[in-house]
Amino acid sequence: MKNKTVLFAALLGVLFLMPGLASAQGQTGSGTLTVTANLLGSISMTFISDPSGVTLTSSGTNAATLAFGSVSASAAPPTHVTETVGATTFTVSTPFEVAVTVSNVTSANYALTAEMQTADAVNSWKIDTFPLTTVPAAATSLTVTGVYAADVVHTLFLTIPFTEGAAVISNTINFVATAN
Amino acid sequence: MKIIAFLWSLFGLGACTAWGQRPPSHTAATSAVRSQAQPDWENASITFLTVANGSPVDSLRSDEGLLNLGTFSCFTRADVNREEIQRHTDSFVVSTRFGLRIGLSSGHLAGTATVSAYLRSTNPLRTLWVDGVRLSMTPGIIARQVSYGVISEHVLKIEVPMSMPDGQMLDSIGVIYTPN
Hints:
The complex is a heterodimer of chains A (about 180) and B (about 180). Chain A is mainly beta and about 180 residues long. Chain A has one domain. Chain A is built from one helix and ten strands, in the order αββββββββββ. In chain A, the strands form two sheets. In chain A, strands 2, 3, 4, 6, 7 and 9 form a six-stranded antiparallel β-sheet that branches. In chain A, a hairpin with a 3-residue loop joins strand 3 and strand 4. Chain A is elongated, with a radius of gyration of 35 Å. The relative contact order of chain A is 0.18. With about 180 residues, chain B is an alpha+beta fold. Chain B folds into two domains: about 40 residues; about 140 residues, Immunoglobulin-like, CATH 2.60.40. In chain B, a hairpin with a 2-residue loop joins strand 2 and strand 3. The N terminus of chain B is likely disordered. Chains A and B meet through helix 1, strand 1, strand 2 and strand 4 of A and helix 1, strand 1, strand 3, strand 5 and strand 10 of B.
C-alpha cells in the first residue's frame, strides 16, 4: 500500500511535467529548396579499337589516331593491317569501331558522315565502300540508320600508287553523327 | 500515510517549479542565458546558401531557396556549371553542393538540430539524393548534428535517365529541422 502510494505520487509528478517536455521536443521548422535546371539533349561519338584492327591511340575518345605503321607494296603489312596489291597501286586497310550514344533526345537512329580535312591528290581514302571527300565538298555519308550504343565496325582503306616515293602519309578525317 | 506521500510529491513539484522561475533580481546576462535555453522557435528560420564549388542558390523568402543548376547535358564537360556529371549506361548523375543555416532572427542559439529532407512532389523519371539519402515523399534524416547559426554543406545528386526528354527540370525539396 505504501509502495502504491509512492508510485502514485511519482506518476502524478511525471504527468505534471510531461506537457513541458512535449512542448520542447515538438518544435520543428521547415524550409523549401526549389531545384531548377535546363536539361539539353546531347549526342556523343567515340572511336574504339577493333579487336581485328590496329590499336587506336586514345581509343574510347572522340579524337583518336589510327596509325597503319610502315607499309610498302613489297613487304608484309603490319599486324592487323590487310594489304592488297593491284597493277599500279596497293591498298592497306584496317577496321575500327564507332560508337554513338544519345541522351535525352527522341531519336531512333543516327546518320554518320566523314570527310577529310586536307586534300590528297596522290592517295585515295575510303571508309567501307565510300570514297571520302575533302572539305569544302559535302561530307561522305557512311550510314543513315546508325544504331545507338553499339560499337559499329567500319574499315578505313588507303590506296597508294606505286609511283609515290617514300613519305609520311597523314590526314584528318572528321566524323559527324546526327540524330535522326 | 497517503497524505504524507502526496504532500511530499507536491513539495517536490513545488521545488521544481520554483527552481525554474527567474528571480526578479537577475541581471540581463542571466536573461540571455535563459534565451538560449528556451529559444523562440517561432522566429527560427532556415536559410539556403551558395557554397564554394556549388551551383548558385538564391534566397527567395524566409525559409525558401532556389538552387539553379543552369543548363547541362549528359555529355557536358565536368564542372562547367559547378556541377559534376557521372555517366552510367542508361543514365547520368549530376551533383552539386549547397549550404543551409538554421538560426534565429535575433540572438545566438546553442545546440544542434536534426535535419530531414523530402520531396514535395514526386517525379518518376528522376531520382534525387541529399548527402546520399534517397529522397521520397517521406522525410529522411540527412544530418543529425547541425549546429545553429553554422552553414552546413550538403551534396545534392540527381539521376537523370538518358531516355528522359530534354527540357526544364523542376524539383522541390522540403527540409525539416528538429532541435536535438
